């Protein structure tokens, strides 16, 4: 029934903002635009840690 949910770590919007070094509003914009998947718990959002890693790695510019 859990199907691997015990391995998923969820982060708050503030934690995501700290990790990405952006404002909380930027994280909210990314969530609402569909760029960053999130789950809504009541009035707050939780973002899977793996989704943050995916977004960061897919947006890294190749400067070489």
If you compute it from the alpha carbons, what radius of gyration comes out, rounded to the nearest whole angstrom? Answer: 13 Å
The CATH topology assignment is: Molybdopterin biosynthesis moea protein, domain 2
Order of helices and strands: EHHEEH
Number of individual domains: 1
What oligomeric state best describes the polypeptide chains here?
Answer: single chain
The CATH architecture category equals Alpha-Beta Complex
Number of helices: 3
Record the strand order, biggest sheet. 1-3-2
Structural class: alpha+beta
Structure report:
The protein is α+β, with helices and mostly antiparallel strands and 64 residues long. It has a single domain, classed as Molybdopterin biosynthesis moea protein, domain 2, CATH 3.90.105. Helices cover 44% and strands 17% of the residues. It is built from 3 helices and 3 strands. The protein has a 3-stranded antiparallel sheet. α1 packs across α2. The longest helix is centred in the middle third of the chain and has 10 residues. The chain is globular and about 35 Å long. The mean pLDDT is 88.
């Amino acid at each position: 029934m859990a199907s691997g949910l015990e391995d998923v770590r969820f982060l708050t919007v503030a934690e995501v903002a700290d990790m990405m070094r952006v404002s909380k509003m930027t994280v909210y914009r990314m969530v609402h635009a569909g760029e960053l998947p999130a789950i809504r718990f009541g009035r707050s959002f939780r973002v899977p840690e793996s989704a943050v890693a995916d977004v960061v790695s897919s947006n890294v510019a190749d400067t070489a």
